[in-house]
Amino acid sequence: MGPPGGGKGTQAEILSEKLSIPHISTGAIIRNAIREKTQLGIVAEGYIEKGQLVPDDLVIDMVSHRLSQKDCENGYILDGFPRTLPQASAMDKIGIKLDAALNLVVADEVIVKRLAGRRECKRCAAPYHIDFNPPKVDGVCDKCGGELITREDDVPETIRQRLDVYHQQTEPLIGFYKEKELLVNVQGRDTIEETTMAVLDALGVKC
Ligand code: ADP
Ligand code: ADP
Ligand code: ZN
Question: Which among 31, 83, 114, 119 is annotated as catalytic?
Fold first, then answer.
């Protein structure tokens, strides 16, 4: 968990490599569905471009389908899900058990700066930043050679809307997971590497 631009995707990608389990980003799945013009994509597009959340029932179906695939057998890292209390309750009902709910704590002022420089691989969704995590070759993904793009929702007005949505609809999950004794808070740092060290330490992952 964490605010938009807090570093969830970046840290999830690193953890996924270290632990050899899939990184499941609901945002990336939705953006892919939009590009492929699937039924989910067509409905989701209107929400995502306004900085609003996609309706719970659609996202819950999408995640339960994804988690039933074979590569999830030995665990997975959820990034950007659950994002509302109904999504968290649905997860409990389906029987999905979490080991930890990692919360990246990052202030709103930091977010706006970070998201302006974010780039994402169009093909594999790997995250980059023009200053803090640049690719080896401008505009090209290090991992798959795909084209790097700026997300349409990473514009100042939509960023502010997403931060409002985060505070209203997602932040209550912090209390929800604290009560379940699953909450692990990690203070976001100025660099990706320092944040990774804090995340690994908090989760007790040896590297
Ligand atoms: P989220 O998935 O939470 O929206 P990302 O992982 O995509 O966030 O990170 C947002 C942007 O900030 C990306 O461009 C990423 O490269 C950059 N970034 C992530 N973590 C840090 C950090 N600790 N310091 C500086 N930049 C970061
Ligand atoms: P960020 O954390 O930077 O906002 P994401 O890729 O996680 O980026 O999400 C981008 C957008 O995708 C959200 O603003 C929302 O519209 C949609 N989305 C992603 N995950 C969910 C979810 N669990 N529930 C509803 N909408 C979601
Ligand atoms: Zn790529």
Answer: 83
